[in-house]
Amino acid sequence: MAKDAFIMILSVYSIEMEHVMVQANQQDDDRYKHLCERIVERCRLQNWYGPDYHSYTSHRGYFYINGKLQMREPSHDLETHFEFPLATEEQLRLSEAVMGFEHPPLLRTLYLQVANGGFGPGRGLTGALGGFCYWTRRDPRYTAMQKERVVEKYGEAYTDLFDPIPFDLEQHEERYDHPREISLSEREWPTYFLHLCEDEGQDHIYLHAKSGHLYDASGPYGGEPTLRGDEVYTRLFRIDGSLEDWFERWLDGIPPVQWYQK
After folding, report:
1. Alpha helices, DSSP H only, in 155-241?
2. HSE-up (13 A, CA, CB side) for residue 94
3. In a 3-state reduction of DSSP, which class is residue 29?
4. How far is residue 48's CA from residue 32's CA, in Å, rounded to a whole number?
5. Which of 90, 131, 175, 197 could be bridged to 122 by S-S, CB 3.0 to 4.6 A?
6. Quick one: CA torsion of 129, 135, 141, 147, rounded to 10 degrees?
């Protein structure tokens, strides 16, 4: 009898926890949907559906189609419409398959309910495959295409960056008491890293999909070597807050320089 009672208690507890998780997920979905609606409304009020950092006469970016990366101008007026349509589940699944992990829920919602990249902070949010991308280096979604182009033009001598050394950000931060700044050698690159955009200062903003942390990636600009004594090639600086916070700051009109202070 005691065993049966214990099993019944566990069953009830499991049902209650499942109900709590469903409610939490629904709340997140509702909040993300509202955020998307506010982004679209901001674009409508400002009569601008492209990125913050732009020229009204030229906003070139890459577009992935039929297995090729093509650079092009916008095909229509960014004062009236987003350049890229909503992403499809097929595009998202393809991107996730290439990256080897699922995109965070908010990022998926942005692609599915706003546009497949090309809008927002900096030079525009990087989309899923089939959408906008401004920066393709170190992005597994485009590695094979880039490597093919480099080999065709320069041979095998310049392909080291297409074979990165995996770097575990969470493990590193746990080991070294969560440092704000991390130095990487030339081939080291974090796993679970998703490119968000290039900012106005030519740094690049990444989302660590596993932890939800955001990072500013910049050149070395001198300084100390990596912990292993290698020459620094990239410096990562952890940005306060989540992806949702990042977009909230943008919606609130807070200047990017105030989003994070080094």
Report:
1. 169-175
2. 14
3. helix
4. 21
5. 197
6. 130
